[in-house]
């Protein structure tokens, strides 16, 4: 027979023991350290992610703006060799008026008609501005049926040469037709057999039943010779590419394209197209065929020497490959008919300022592509943002007319 077990007054107390005060304090301290470390890592990761997102967005803006400009500038050539200087006048132009198809405002500091963004001015940045006569039909000439003085009648939609031309003159295209041939446009009339052309301001245009009619400010030149029905027309707008200020933020800038008035070059209302936001610099310079450095080198033309194009002295400046003593706007104005290509540099800043970025840049002697930050707001400790640059080259063989 088993003896009854004795019960101790302390039996079972071990299952009811808790943490001591010291253990609670140590546990709380360790939990706080771990939480603080996790929170710090979260904040650091979030800040890094936001910074990388800013950089990615800036790169995307640069790539889009570069491809946009490359697409438009590559197609300018056949309509842009029209200079106000009679010494380099396109021999195919038969008109009496004078237009400058390409005009560069080199490192424009601002003034009448253009206000330089205040943040750019504070950082010593003066972007270029480019003005150009642009074919807004997308390179789709419209066949002409007849010309009577200043009145042009186009061929019917079914007789137009391309799909795009038929779209511009087909059913439902009345609004688009009137928009591209408005009273702020030019009409280019080209004899496709000889290449001879005239460019005249448009007075009015109307599209009805697939037949377009255009009224010009003046009759076409007599030597154009469109009686045989060999002429086509293209709508031309005067446009400008410039770095402009955001309407709601004087420290913020963007790259835009806007139409200009043929009368005085002022921007037309509601014509601004924002190409890319946060753009802080736009530089453009030419690559020229400098064969003989003469516009009348008959001897070289006779023996058929190939163009001798010197290398660009520096890829980091904003100067072309020829005549370093002339500014880029002078060269482009005088020698657009010798232009073989253009170089383009765009710079975009990050959308936000970085409090840790306090780099004090030495702007003197700095090339366009060497800038790495910009002071967005006036506080030198917290007001800087990162800047990224992108350089592109654009071949423009359609600009070339030669000697």
Structural class: alpha+beta
Radius of gyration: 33 Å
**Assembly type:** single chain
Which regions are unreliable across 5 or more consecutive residues at pLDDT < 50?
293-303
What average pLDDT do the residues reach?
81
For the biggest β-sheet, the strand order reads: 3-4-7-6-5-8
What is the element string, with H for helices and E for strands?
HHEHEEEHHEEEEEEEHHEEE
- Range of strand content: 25-35%
Shape: elongated
Q: How many β-strand runs?
A: 14
Number of domains: 1
Mind describing the biggest β-sheet? 6 strands, antiparallel, barrel
Helical segment count = 7
How far is the first residue's CA from the last residue's CA?
131 Å
The residue fraction in helices comes out at 10-25%
List keywords for this structure.
403 residues, alpha+beta, 6-stranded antiparallel barrel, 4-stranded antiparallel beta sheet, 7 helices, 28% strand, elongated
Could you please describe the fold and organization of this structure?
There is one protein chain. By secondary structure, the protein is α+β, with helices and mostly antiparallel strands. It has one domain. 23% of the residues lie in helices and 28% in strands. It is built from 7 helices and 14 strands. It has helices at residues 21-74, 77-80, 118-122, 163-169, 174-180, 298-303, 328-335; strands at 102-105, 129-135, 142-148, 151-154, 186-191, 197-208, 211-216, 231-246, 249-259, 273-277, 279-288, 339-349, 373-375, 384-395. It has a 6-stranded antiparallel beta barrel with strand order 3-4-7-6-5-8. A hairpin with a 5-residue loop joins strand 5 and strand 6 (197-208). The longest helix is centred in the first third of the chain and has 54 residues, at 21-74. It is elongated and about 110 Å long. The termini are far apart.
């Amino acid at each position: 027979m088993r003896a009854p077990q004795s019960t101790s007054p302390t039996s079972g107390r071990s299952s009811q023991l808790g943490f001591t005060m010291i253990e609670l304090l140590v546990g709380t301290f360790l939990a706080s350290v771990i939480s603080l470390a996790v929170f710090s890592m979260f904040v650091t990761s979030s800040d890094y992610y936001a910074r990388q997102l800013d950089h990615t967005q800036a790169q995307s803006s640069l790539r889009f703006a570069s491809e946009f400009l490359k697409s438009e500038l590559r197609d300018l050539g056949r309509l842009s060799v029209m200079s106000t200087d009679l010494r380099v006048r396109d021999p195919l132009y038969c008109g009496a008026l004078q237009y400058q198809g390409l005009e560069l405002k080199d490192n424009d500091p601002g003034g009448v008609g253009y206000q330089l963004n205040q943040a750019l001015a504070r950082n010593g940045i003066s972007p270029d501005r480019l003005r150009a006569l642009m074919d807004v039909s997308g390179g789709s000439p419209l066949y002409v049926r007849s010309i009577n003085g200043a009145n042009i009648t186009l061929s019917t939609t079914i007789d137009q040469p391309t799909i795009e031309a038929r779209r511009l003159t087909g059913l439902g295209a009345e609004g688009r037709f009137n928009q591209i041939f408005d009273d702020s446009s030019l009409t280019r009339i080209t004899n496709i057999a000889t290449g001879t052309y005239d460019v005249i301001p448009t007075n009015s245009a109307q599209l009805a039943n697939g037949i377009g009619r255009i009224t010009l400010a003046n009759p076409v030149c007599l030597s154009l010779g469109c009686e045989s029905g060999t002429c086509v027309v293209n709508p031309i707008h005067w446009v400008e590419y410039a770095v402009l200020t955001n309407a709601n933020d004087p420290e913020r800038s963007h790259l835009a394209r806007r139409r200009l008035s043929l009368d005085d070059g002022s921007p037309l209302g509601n014509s601004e197209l924002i190409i890319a936001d946060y753009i802080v610099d736009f530089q453009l310079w030419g690559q020229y065929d400098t064969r003989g450095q003469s516009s009348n080198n008959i001897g070289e033309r006779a023996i058929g020497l190939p163009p001798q194009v010197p290398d660009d002295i520096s890829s980091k400046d904003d100067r072309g490959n020829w005549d370093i003593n002339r500014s880029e706007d002078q060269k482009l104005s005088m020698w657009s008919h010798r232009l073989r290509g253009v170089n383009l540099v765009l710079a975009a800043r990050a959308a936000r300022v970085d409090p840790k970025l306090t780099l004090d840049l030495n702007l003197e002697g700095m090339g366009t592509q060497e800038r790495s930050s910009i002071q967005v707001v006036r506080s030198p400790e917290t007001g800087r943002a990162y800047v990224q640059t992108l350089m592109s080259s654009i071949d423009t063989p359609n600009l070339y007319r030669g000697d």
